[in-house]
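Re: beginner question about structure tokens

> Can someone show what the tokenized structure looks like for a real chain? I only ever see the sequence side.

Sure, here's an example I had lying around. Input first:
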Amino acid sequence: MEPSLARVDYLQVGVTAQKTMRLLPASGKKATQKVVVGDQDGVVTCFGIKKGEAVPVFKTLPGRKISRLELGGALNTPQEKIFVAIGSEVRGFTKRGKQFLSFETNLTESIKAMYISGADLFLCASYIYNHYCDCKDQHYFLSGDKINDVLCLPVDKVKCITPVLACQDRLLRVLQGSDLLYEVELPGPPTVLALSNGNGGDSGEEIVYGTSDGKLGLTQITGTKAIPRWEIGNEKKRGGILCIDSFDILGDGVKELLVGRDDGMIEIYNFESADDPVLRYDYALSESIASIQGGCVGKDGYDEILAATYSGWLTGLTTEPVHREGGSGEELKLSQEMQSKISSLRNELEQLQIKVLQERDKYQQSSQSSTAVSSVPAFSVNDKFTLNKDDASYSLILEVQTAIDNVLVQSDVPLDLLDVDKNSAVVSFSSCDSEPNHNFLLATYRCQANTTRLELKVRSIEGQYGTLQAYVTPRIQPKTCQVHQYQIKPLSLHQRTHSIDQDRPMNTLMLKGQFSFAEIHSWVVFCLPEVPEKTPAGECITFYFQNTFLGTQLESTYRKGEGYFKSDNISTISILKDVLSKEATKRKINLNISYDVNEESVRHTLQLIHPKLEYQQLLAKKVHLIDTLRELQVHEGNVDFLLPKYRSILEEADQLLEEYKRQPSHLNRLYGMITDLFIDKFKFKGTNVKTKVSLLLEMLDGCDQDSLIAFFDAA
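And the corresponding structure tokens:
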């Protein structure tokens, strides 16, 4: 049975970061719980709900932004002490709001993740993990990539301190003291960790993780290895997971999994069988869910899910019925409650309108005075630029704390803007001067009223690199704009992977020269996405990549003075050779470049491209036939006389048009890749075959795989 939940908006605080809202333990069974939330204005707000109204318990003064909020206390007692991370400092408050702790850590960066277990405090900056016990430094670990979250297995069950780090390079790092115990490979970059069932399950070893590409999974962290239990893909193409909680919202005695995503989806998964969880309920809000908790907030005896959104709204999905069944007395009582609430809201609205008019007059007077100083209103933008493995496109998500008026997108490299189903903005394109100004894309998205989140999709061309800029203008006065820049890298469609198939025919590029480990690492960062900016520890490093468009591979191994790059796609090697040479020349470093080309790799790459080429050519032909077939259908009245293949085109016309619209330049991209492969194959032999490109393009239309391979061999 699907739960019947009603939405209630309680309160709005400032912009909130991930995992900054918690529910304090209830004083009795089914009693209402207090809510505590920290925002980016540095304010910790604690409140309860009485008669549908938020009643404050305490509120701290503004300061630096709060990056995490956790509850703590002695083990096996109610966790009701409030800890917040502000910069590199941790502060502690009682449930009444009295500050009892101000701990300035030895971290040089701001705290990004925090976990508390009894007297143990686990903190993470971008790459650094620190463990403190009673505010005394215990252990330290330097991670190979950015740390997104941290937790520790319950000490009362596992009997030892076992911290787990969620790292951007698709790994969980399990620690013992200051040492790495082992690594766990995940299907995507983990963004959030939670103990299964809130306590790690029966063994205390079970961890639920959520990834930035929307996958959810459970793994058991034993003393020697990880045992994967279940994994749920992101079939519905929803947003990345930001928060997870366990709570029995269905009232069946088994805790459900509550999940909050960055596209505003709230999901409830329950365990109908002992195996994988099943999605039982979802609800869409208009902005990302920064924190999620299950508990009793609005009224005694009625459980609910409480979510904190990016712009600071605290929204509940409650089991309390909206329309109560009962006699006229109860209806009268309800209407009186409603009337008093409406009356208080009207009074509040009137006071706000008066205040706005006063402030507007004040601003007008100050702006017209001789000593006037223009003030630019500050606003917060939450942005994310990620590569999607499924369709080899980049998603740019822009979220603003207030309504967006328009977003101007500009790029100095060729990019395709793709359709996004969830996007309701109106897009208009402007003509560009690509030659003198290197301006290849200029598009404006005009947003509808109250749009606070905009998602765009772009597809890049490997080998062409530069910058994508987004100019974000919100609906605030005076008009102001923020510019956000995103790097399009030379091998932009490559994604990090844990391993590659070593049996494929590989081409090798070898570099030698007077360069440091940090210098060659900075060149790799410049060329490839998902490489940590910090130079890795040790003397040598290997990264593996997969091309999301073609499925070709790249292995990158380098150290001080030498680098080796292997790929089954000769075009990848060609791009690396050109870009790395250019970067070395900029720094006046002489490179000794050698390469080993495997002729078989070209045939192998063509075999990967050709099925995609055939599919896209067939799709294009079908789409071109649709209008003609529809005219025939109108003219003849029925289509029974048509061959079955033409009837199926008419039946699937809408899906075919939708697919073609989603990827308009797909075929041209494939033609471009085959052309580049042809040029690159002969470039390494010292032969210029650009004059034969027109012949290649002529034969591509409808040619089979063997003919294409024969053309490459004969040229």
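Each token stands for a local structural state, so reading them left to right follows the chain. The longest strand covers residues 466-474.
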